[in-house]
Design brief:
Strand order of the largest sheet: 9-16-10-13-14-15-17
Order of helices and strands: EHEEEEEEEEEEEEEEEHE
Helix content: under 10%
Structural class: mainly beta
Number of helices: 2
Strand content: 15-25%
Length: 287
């Protein structure tokens, strides 16, 4: 999918770079697979804001995605490849030979008329879903289950993929998009290919109005707040009272600091953690 640039006829389009969706199917979503989606403005049942910077936005319906690929050993044909306002990836409507229809995440390169199937021994081709133990080493996959029959949990956003690194003793080693290496049971299902819309990372909205249409309200910078915020106060920028120290969040945690619980029971499945991204990390000097 290509990127779309505009002539600088106004400030709102001068720097805008959007996804060109002219190749997608221009149809309404399949009515039997849509649900009402109400905007709550980030408020809970007591009317209190529990998620900041949410509100307004264009009214939209939710497309029900078949993350479990429940149709086993039934071949399907891609009817449409559509835009989904609820996610960064595109979705595909699959019509199975028994007449049933389901939405799936569209992998990059999937076209109308292609055949897909969800089977333990399915061929390793684009869009097919099969068990990790039957996927060759080095293959890129997406929509991977963390637990058998748990539905796809990881690698679901635009352009993401996971590389199968091999397996042993009932587990498959996966290289995550973050660079982390972890083990997943070989009975879990995964879909072949990259997630569609890989150019999503290059999008520039160009103006605040497009963010408001998405339901995102303005965010006030920490350095513009009072001294109660770790970034605020003083003459300089960054750190408590403008001392220019390490950047931190409103709770004082340094940006980039790992927040994973030390006693997380799934830590035993991680072979290698993702690379350290905290450039403010203090290192000990050995004399």
């Amino acid at each position: 999918m290509a990127l779309r640039k505009f002539k600088p006829t106004s400030a709102g389009v001068r720097h805008a770079v959007l996804i060109d969706r002219k190749e997608l199917s221009k149809v309404r979503p399949f009515r039997g697979l849509t649900e009402e989606l109400r905007s709550k403005g980030g408020r809970n049942n007591l009317g209190r804001i529990t998620m900041r910077h949410q509100g307004a936005g264009v009214k939209k319906s939710y497309r029900v995605i078949d993350f479990k690929r429940v149709k086993q050993n039934v071949e399907g044909t891609i009817e449409t490849v559509e835009y989904d306002p609820n996610r960064t990836a595109f979705i595909a409507l699959v019509k199975y030979v028994d007449g049933d229809r389901k939405y799936i995440l569209a992998p990059d390169g999937l076209k109308i008329g292609d055949k897909v199937i969800n089977s333990e021994n399915a061929p390793v081709s684009l869009g097919n879903s099969l068990k990790l133990k039957n996927i060759p080493q080095g293959t890129f996959v997406h929509s991977v289950e963390l637990y058998p029959n748990g539905g796809a949990k990881i690698a679901r956003s635009a352009g993401t993929r996971i590389q199968v690194m091999g397996g042993d003793q009932g587990y498959t080693q996966l290289k995550m998009p973050s660079g982390e290496l972890r083990l997943v049971k070989e009975e879990c299902f995964a879909s072949i290919g990259f997630v569609s819309n890989q150019d999503q990372k290059n999008v520039k909205l160009g103006k605040a109005g497009r963010n408001r249409l998405k339901g995102v309200r303005p965010t006030v910078r920490g350095v513009a707040m009072s001294t109660k915020h770790p970034h605020a106060g003083g003459q300089g920028k960054g750190g408590r009272h403008g001392t220019g120290g390490p950047k931190s969040d409103p709770w004082g945690n340094m940006i980039g600091k790992r927040t994973r619980r030390m006693k997380n029971p799934t830590t035993k499945f991680i072979i290698r953690r993702r690379p350290e991204t905290n450039k403010f990390k203090k290192t000990k000097t050995i004399i």
